[in-house]
Amino acid sequence: MLILGLESSCDETAAALVTGDRRVLAHKLAGQEAAHRPFGGVVPEIAARAHVEVLGPLVEAALAEADVTLADVDAIAATAGPGLIGGVMVGLVTGKALALASGKPLVAVNHLEGHALSPRLADPDLGFPYLLLLVSGGHCQILLVEGPGAYRRLATTIDDAAGEAFDKTAKLLGLGFPGGPAVERAAALGNARAVPLPRPLVGSAEPHFSFAGLKSAVSRARDAGTWAAEDIAASFQAAVVDCLIDRTRRALNRVPTITALVVAGGVAANGAVRAALEGLARDHALRFVAPPLWLCTDNAAMIAWAGAERFAAGMVDPLDAPARARWPLDGDAEKVRGAGVKA
Ligand code: KG4
Ligand code: ZN
Q1: Rg (CA), the chain
Q2: What would the pLDDT profile of 230-262 be if each residue is shown by its tens digit?
Q3: What CATH number should be reported for the domain whose range is 127-290?
């Protein structure tokens, strides 16, 4: 089985070819950091235009690298949401056009399912069900992953996502864009115990997350002028790690038998986050699985792989499948009350 995957839901444009037996034949990616850097964040309209310009050439480059044509592909998987709607539409319409022209089926993939199943692309031994901490720029959730299309959301954020907190902290501290890697680099040079920062929701009964208060505390610490940016970055990162670990531990105590503790999404690229989760898994005598760094941040191989899992399970989509700005993985999950509930 050979699947072409397309990704364009945020600020990475990507195309990849992945086989049903987990071979990544090609994965092409074009970031847009330079275009967004002057604004300190992703500008949706600039992102959508950039996707239009580069997605076609990336598909051609991926096919050439894998030395295949569309005729060799079994299905075309495109991110259909959630994300910045202009970008999602570019990728989904491209996927539909390729499907129509080639007569191959379309698989409309939820971007979050791409992240959620990506650890199984890297690790053939990872079976269902597993507990997943999904931490990205737009999402911070704990999910019980039971199979393609089968998710139970145990927790979400009541305000900001973890990656968003990293990005805002980087902006506040003048560390540059994109924020996550910049904060991690600065944190390596600082003292994590220097700045007293809150651990929002730690110890609360439901395993939900909150990062807005932490961001405000970082802003106040900066304004105090007492601490070096490196110390604030290190203390912030330690606070985020404490929150993620406490909340994940609580969720672990609620789930039935699972095969592993898994982390995915852009923040899973953070060394401190990975190390702490590995320790938590050890405490619970669980396997710990984290995809390689290139598979943690947005890419099309994870979309192709989620497409492969869905296609193998007989899930294909009509050519009028909608692009969705919001698309929860677990449609039955309760709405969580809090400032700025987005899903
Ligand atoms: O999964 P992703 O590439 O895109 C979304 O779907 O959101 O995640 C991007 C997020 C950004 O907020 C970025 O700052 C964060 O992941 N990130 C990191 C690191 N690398 C990326 N956060 C902390 N430490 C990192 N090393
Ligand atoms: Zn993502």
Answers
A1: 20
A2: 999 999 999 999 999 999 999 999 998 999 999
A3: 3.30.420.40
Structure tokens at 307: 């497409």
- Ligand 2 centre distance from Cα of residue 104 (Å): 26
70 within 8 A of 27, measured Cβ to Cβ: no
Q: How far is CA 203 from CA 91, 117, 248, 301, in A?
A: 41, 29, 11, 37
Determine the Cα–Cα distance for residues 145 and 131; give it in Å rounded to an integer: 6
Tokens representing 196 are 């007293």
Q: How far apart are CA 267 and CA 263, in angstroms?
A: 9
DSSP-based three-state secondary structure for 280 = helix
Phi and psi at 29, nearest 5°, equal -145, 135
266 CB less than 6 Å from ligand 1? yes
pTM: 0.92
Q: What is the largest CA-CA distance in the chain?
A: 63
CATH number for the region 2-116+298-312 comes to: 3.30.420.40
> Which of 118, 236, 267, 329 should be mutated for ligand 1, with most atoms under 8 A from CB?
267
24-31 and 130-135 beta bridge pairing? unpaired
pLDDT digits (tens, 9 = 90+) for 13-41: 999 999 999 999 999 999 888 888 888 77
DSSP 8-state secondary structure symbol assigned to residue 336 = P
Distances (CA, A) of 242 to 152, 198, 214, 321: 23, 10, 12, 40
Which ligand is nearest to the Cα of residue 138, counting in written order?
1
Parts of the chain belonging to CATH 3.30.420.40: 2-116+298-312, 127-290
- Which candidate, 8, 21, 17, 110, places its Cα nearest to that of 53? 8
- Enter the tokens of residue 73: 């592909």
